[in-house]
Amino acid sequence: MKYFGFLIVFIISLVLAVGLSVNLGQVPPLGYLMDPYHGFWQNAYSEDELAKETLTLEGLRAPVTVVYDNNLIPHVFAENKADLMMAQGYVTAKHRLWQMEFQTRAAAGRISEIVGSAALDFDRMQRRKGLGYGAEMGLQYIKEKEPATLELITAYTKGVNQYIDQLGLSRLPVEYKILDYRPEQWTPYKTVLLLKYMADMLVGDKDIEFTNLRHVLGESMINRLFPDIPASNDPVIEADHVWDFAPLPVHKPDSAVYPDFSLLIDPVPAPEPGTGSNNWAVAGKKTKSGHPILANDPHLGLNLPSLWYAMQLSTPEYTVKGATLPGALGVISGFNEQVAWGVTNATRDVRDWYAITFKDHSRLEYQYNDQWIQSSVRVEEIAVKGDVTYLDTVIYTHYGPVVYDESFHPNSQKMNFALKWTAHEGSNEQQTFLDLNVARNHDDYLAALDHYTAPAQNFAFASSQGDIAMKVQGKFPLKWPEQGKYLMDGNNPAFEWSGYIPFGHNPSTLNPERGFVSSANQYSVGESYPYYIFDNSFEDYRNRRINSRLGEMENITLEDMKALQFDDFDLHASEALPLMLEKLKQDTSRKFDAKEQAFLVVLEKWDYYADPDVKGPVAFGLWWEAFKGSVWNWLDQGDRPVVYPDNFMTTSLMREVPNDSIFDIPGTTGQTETVVHHLQTSFEQASLEYQAMKADQGEDLVWASYKNTTIRHLVPNFTAFSREGIFTGGGRSIVNATSERHGASWRMLVELGPEIKAQGIYPGGQSGNPGSRFYDNLLETWAEGDYIDIGLRSKQDAANVLFTTTLNPID
Question: Is the predicted pLDDT of residue 78 greater than 60, yes or no?
Answer without folding.
Answer: yes
